[in-house]
Prior knowledge:
The chain is mainly beta. The strands form 11 sheets. It has a 7-stranded parallel β-sheet. Helix 6 runs parallel beside helix 7.
Amino acid sequence: xxxxxxxxxxxxxxxxxxxxxxxxxxxxxxxxxxxxxxxxxxxxxxxxxxxxxxxxxxxxxxxxxxxxxxxxxxxxxxxxxxxxxxxxxxxxxxxxxxxxxxxxxxxxxxxxxxxxxxxxxxxxxxxxxxxxxxxxxxxxxxxxxxxxxxxxxxxxxxxxxxxxxxxxxxxxxxxxxxxxxxxxxxxxxxxxxxxxxxxxxxxxxxxxxxxxxxxxxxxxxxxxxxxxxxxxxxxxxxxxxxxxxxxxxxxxxxxxxxxxxxxxxxxxxxxxxxxxxxxxxxxxxxxxxxxxxxxxxxxxxxxxxxxxxxxxxxxxxxxxxxxxxxxxxxxxxxxxxxxxxxxxxxxxxxxxxxxxxxxxxxxxxxxxxxxxxxxxxxxxxxxxxxxxxxxxxxxxxxxxxxxxxxxxxxxxxxxxxxxxxxxxxxxxxxxxxxxxxxxxxxxxxxxxxxxxxxxxxxxxxxxxxxxxxxxxxxxxxxxxxxxxxxxxxxxxxxxxxxxxxxxxxxxxxxxxxxxxxxxxxxxxxxxxxxxxxxxxxxxxxxxxxxxxxxxxxxxxxxxxxxxxxxxxxxxxxxxxxxxxxxxxxxxxxxxxxxxxxxxxxxxxxxxxxxxxxxxxxxxxxxxxxxxxxxxxxxxxxxxxxxxxxxxxxxxxxxxxxxxxxxxxxxxxxxxxxxxxxxxxxxxxxxxxxxxxxxxxxxxxxxxxxxxxxxxxxxxxxxxxxxxxxxxxxxxxxxxxxxxxxxxxxxxxxxxxxxxxxxxxxxxxxxxxxxxxxxxxxxxxxxxxxxxxxxxxxxxxxxxx
Length: 800
């Protein structure tokens, strides 16, 4: 699908990638950059996926992205949300792609459009609609006539051998043949056929990317992973701002022209949109976290990096590149144009453990370990990747008094079906995905067996054991309507075996297995033939031996009744009888309550650590799957808090509905507000001033402030003011992180705190000089080595 507007400043990308200009001028490229309206440009891009962000939050996210130094927004196009049924299209509300692109235009930014239509993206079925699986004779992701669509193909091309090679050439020829008037790019495709451009995905493309396969193509980084997506069962995933900045600076020092952060804002996998086992929260460690809050120092450090690179723009796009080896292992990458008299240098210390000093053009410079200093005039250091000048912050959750006041929970027990009620019967258990067709996570498998007293163990302390071999992903087991237990696989190994004692009785016994997926797979070869659900079933420990139930005759029923009746909506709640919820602990139970919107305007979340696994709706809108019962190796849930966008809420009377699958206590659910009101700064005597202290004028870099010595700069969010100084030391560097500092072994704390209070209390923003004159007379003066100032303050507004 292709959307074009003659008034739209656009940079369109991917199935491959293509670019559209602002006013329908010719868009081309050379070995240095894309050329739009006859001009070379540097592109600082960030991935923001429209289905993962409520439409009411789009302007806020774009605004924060632009203030973070981006000039481009990237998104996939998600086929399965636009054509969930063949021939039935949806471009409304959160799926209004045209509105999304027009809002980018209003921000005077470019748009990078990755049209897929296969996108992967940790998205359900990689963006492919389920009905595609039922097209006759189809094989996904190869040179197969019914299937001709792709993205990031190089990783699986070998699985299809000659068909994979011919498929790549077909895709390139098809794209170019559309005559869109813009260049196309193939992600991760080393041998992209001309004139299509090959690009890099990864964490360190400045070192791992061998470059374009032709000298007339630009260097493009289509996915720079700002952290790592997480699946249920994972420990936390992080990537330091310093590491990310080093990688980006390295890439641009090697003729890079476009860097796209994947993700810049990950958002939320609402409803059932996540791929197999992927958490509801997506790329929370991005520069803008799940709630759209600036995650510092990542957001601020990258903003400063972009400003430093812009000061080098003319040299990067028109200068002649060269490499010079300096002393102590330092490397200089230089871009210089003698005619225009511009010069920019990237001085790199690749030693990961030791700092270094080196002379460059007659001047000595200091470099922290594994760092790059950027000199936009080959003289002045305006940015170092390891020295974070921007502030840090820490995220906090606060229980809302208003929202949690007088909550009254009611419950409805989901009906457990028996085989006689099942609409689909077959001798063996049927494959799950073929039955649900992505209409629901759930598929009931039901059967029944007749037992006599002589079949059952004579001893009362011995029970038969139910054994179920399951292709994945999760299964809840019931016998005669009573919950027995649950089993699940993992993102790495979907299949599992469930074994647990089961209470059976003389007469008719009903075995009821609720199988389910936690999202469809999104990657790899042969996506259309993946398996899930119950495979083999047996009862062990009977007096007559093991009873194989695999061919016993099975009933199949898609979904659960409450889901079909939409009892999570205001209208649907009237379709069933609710009763007072007392304590919880019931498997496969619906809970509902009503709450008022929390005070203030901070983001809202639910803490669900008292629950097990299930789904949540607010005012009929699904905020996604939760699974706090699945612990990481650290013994904690992978995700405990779940985002409730403010745009979903009314001032009062908000309907909250929870489907709990395993048993949990809804009375312990907490409605929270989210903030990043704890802000910090750690600045050493070797830090340069903020990059905003310089600008280019008449081809030269000059200071625009009187004092370019290092300073700790603090700024409260949302016009709040600093109400408390929680921590302040001058001396050696403290341990820990913002929100949890511990003083170093040689610091001045009480004196430093007094100084910071004088500079900052009652203000929205403040600057504190980092020098011995400001903090003179304290113990910090006597500390050996490089001295640093570490500060932590708390901000508050009228509603806090």
